[in-house]
User: Fold this.
Amino acid sequence: MTEATTDVAPHPRLAVAVLAFCGVVVAIMQTIVVPLLPHIPDLTGATPEAASWLVTVTLLTGAVFTPVLGRVGDMYGKRRVLLASLGVLVVGSVLCAVSSHIGVLIAGRALQGAAIAVIPLGISILRDELPPERVLSAVALMSSTMGIGAAVGLPIAAVVIENYEWHTMFWVSGAIGLLDFLLVLRLVPESPLRSRGRFDTLGTLGLTGALVCLLLAVTQGGSWGWTSPITLGLLAGAIVIALVWGAYELRVPTPMVDLRVSARPAVLLTNVAALLIGFAFYANSLVTGQMVQEPKATGYGLGASIVVSGLCLLPGGVTMVLLSPVSARISGKYGPRTSLALASVVIAAGYVVRYFTSHSLWLIVAGATVVSAGTAIAYSALPAQVMRSVPVAETGAANGLNTLMRSIGQAFCSATVAAVLANMTFLAAGREAPTLGAYQLVFLIAGAAALLALAVTLCLPGAGERTGTVGGERRSSARTRAMPIEEGA
Assistant:
């Protein structure tokens, strides 16, 4: 059941721009420390293993808080929760800016990671606030910010690290986060919809436990050993907790995740596709910079600087901005399933280019940009497909779960890439380096993930896809616009 308020967006175009800017900023926070990681042990006195937690902890907190805050937003106000997330981002940035202690840095990064919930919350606000004919393009842009931020975050961080004291990066991120907070407060109205019921505390704890066990095993299994007792114990714990949690969620009147809705083919298969797309996209971000930085003695490396390696992904970020409205038009005319299928093909084609063009900087950039183009189309189509298939009162939670699946896909990709590059090495110029075959194997695996996403997408229900709008509904006086649940979905 829902209840509505009557807030109206005073400047819809500005609201879209502000929310998209927020999405880019929080997505940048996820990758901003990657160029800094090799230097963290010298800068802080921490071990390399401790330094790796600056990335791992953002993945963990983002995965846990994204679906939880999506549900809280549905119940208590999406803008209110979005503002709280931006506030957490600012606090985390300040913590990282004022300290060089690894424990404080990890705590700050944990807070920054939790702010990724801004993206699904923003998507839900746009769905509630905009007229139906504008929803697709706005949601496409908002969803693409996850990929845009990842693409532009690396070169920005590289430039800052090369030219300024490293804490500057966090001071700047904190200032921009504060600007985001003020812009949302001024230009983004509260969403008019509420979902009634009691907050599912036990369900939240169960979901948190299962995700933490799974992601710890996946992200740390390479260093702990995939057959070590702690890794196997965490995987077993994740399975047991998930089974108990699922049984509990099916009995709760207002569950944290409505498993009955999530089990519908239209929702379940879209989330599986999101996991595979997240995997395929992330390989591009992980290996491009490292590959061009490899020394020329490897026979394939270009010996590029950290700034040049970061800039390799920048054309992909620009492409994602330009393609998000194109994806919206395709989804509006042919349905988001068609957009998602097209995106999967483009990503796979990009990795074919990457496989055969590993010796030329410009061809590497071209291949990486093709992958980013496919990712832009996919990330724009995924929330549109989800919103066709869930009740309007569950938009925040459903988009949060879909974003979570992308994050899980990225976690599996990170573990896979690390394992491949660590186990296929040779000596070059007196140091151990991955072989060219290792990088090519990564491209093959990522391309295969994109093709699997295509297969899953083709199994999606196709009813009602040629409506011309997401939901095709008319605006009501109470502003309770909703996207209908597809019959049989």
